[in-house]
Design a protein that fits this description.
The protein is α/β, with parallel strands linked by helices and 194 residues long. The chain has one domain: Leucine-rich repeat, LRR (right-handed beta-alpha superhelix) (Alpha-Beta Horseshoe). It contains three helices and 13 strands. Strands 1, 2, 3, 5, 6, 8 and 10 form a seven-stranded mixed beta sheet that branches. A three-stranded parallel beta sheet has the order 4-7-9, with no helix packed on it. It has a three-stranded parallel beta sheet with strand order 11-12-13, with no helix packed on it. A hairpin with a 2-residue loop joins strand 5 and strand 6. The chain is globular and about 45 Å long. The N terminus is likely disordered.
Length: 194
């Protein structure tokens, strides 16, 4: 069902691009579509987190119900390594101000932190090699990046999220792939250094 969720998000994004409709109006609906598509997988609960096992035996955080303002994602749950923040996992968490991800995380899913209206700080470890589309869309953290703080893309094979591009984007030589339309919605990009 993960594939269905990604296909649905891509279809909605494509329709928006073709029709010229404002992306801002579609953000909440897209997060709901992805979340509904993923409901059929077997999930478990750990504290305020919902998670699922991936095929490689590691854990993906799939949802949460957090009331804290500062949250640290665990590196393990019951002795199993947490490697992924799933699609829409933290989206619309209104109280979340700061998030720390462990260095076991390798990917951040589509819409993962989208519309976290209080999110001002997130520590993304160097272990992250993939950030999917709209992961930080409509967050204060992203808006700060767009206002001028450079965003440094640090890992190879990273999918550059169209919505995480800042006024200045620095792409180091380790990066081997930049996705098509990576900077399509980046109205604040003034320069890209490769």
């Amino acid at each position: 069902m993960k594939i269905f969720g990604k296909m649905m998000a891509l279809a909605v994004t494509g329709a928006i691009l073709l029709t010229g409709v404002s992306l801002q109006n579609w953000v909440p609906q897209m997060a709901e579509l992805v979340a509904v598509a993923d409901e059929s997988e077997e999930t478990y609960t750990y504290s305020d987190l919902t998670y699922a096992y991936l095929e490689d035996g590691t854990i993906e955080i799939t949802d949460c119900d957090i009331t804290e303002t500062v949250f640290e994602v665990p590196s393990e749950i019951d002795g199993v390594t947490v490697t992924c923040i799933g699609d829409s996992a933290f989206s619309t968490q209104k109280t979340l101000v700061s998030v720390t991800l462990p260095d076991t995380i390798t990917s951040i899913g589509g819409c993962a932190f989208m519309s976290c209206s209080s999110l001002e700080e997130i520590e993304i470890p160097n272990s992250v090699t993939y950030i999917d589309a709209l992961a930080f869309f409509s967050t204060p953290w992203l808006l700060e990046k767009q206002a001028g703080d450079p965003l440094v893309i640090v890992n190879s094979n990273i999918l550059v999220d169209a919505q995480t591009a800042a006024g200045e984007v620095i792409v180091p030589e380790e990066v081997t792939t930049i996705s098509p339309y990576a900077f399509y919605f980046c109205h604040y990009v003034e320069s890209v250094e490769i």
